[in-house]
Known about the structure:
This protein is α/β, with parallel strands linked by helices. Helices cover 52% and strands 13% of the residues. Its main location: cytoplasm.
Amino acid sequence: MPKNETITGGIGFLGAGRMAQALAAGFVRGGLVPPAEVIAYNPSPAASEAFEAAVGPGAKRAASASEVVKSARIVFLAVKPYNAAEALAAAADEWQSDKQLLVSVAAGVTLEALAKPLPKGAAIVRVMPNTPCLIGKGACCYALGEHATADQGADVQRLLSAVGFASETPEKLLDAVTGLSGSGPAFVYTIIEALADGGVRAGLPRALAAELAAHTVAGAAGMVATTGEHPAALRDAVASPGGTTIAGLAELERHGVRSALIEAVTTAARRSAELGKS
Length: 278
């Protein structure tokens, strides 16, 4: 499918919270679907109103989950994990396994669990997005269920690419993805806060220190993503012999920052696996 061609058949959302709003707005902003082809159901009127405002004039508000399924070829499940089975059961009677695709962003809910409330043969894709999708800078991975076709996978790739980076992966790796990119923004926010605190301690005004820290992290991340160079090579290019950077790096090693981040990711991944089994 050409990159600039819209995705036909309508896109629906079961759930209209912040992630649903970010995804839908990104799809519209990327020219993949017009607002009039987007429909969402959420029992909260406030969430429904916020969804309409985020997506734009013409976005539709459904009265039920089944109405979403009747109206959309691709349906995003964007509810809390503990509400996933109930939401799917409410939509199951209208599901057409030969025509529709379910894309779940419910954290920890496996492809097997997603399939249970739906008719046999339902095409399902499980996605692990992260909160920077809200500003079009997300990092998403997705796993195809056994009945999802290559064309449906291509649709998901195009949709997720409208809100950031997207990559297909086996489902068994999604817990690791959760630990890294799903939980990772919180780890980076902690790093930004600490860098700003260091700037304040060194004499910078708080507001300036916060701005410098945020832009420094964004710029460094952009260097890794844009150049394709290994982070260690980029780091070494900054660290002059006997200079300020190598002195600071020695302190990071002394305090175990690298080990702490590795443990944070692996612990979050373990917790994701535990939640998937509960």
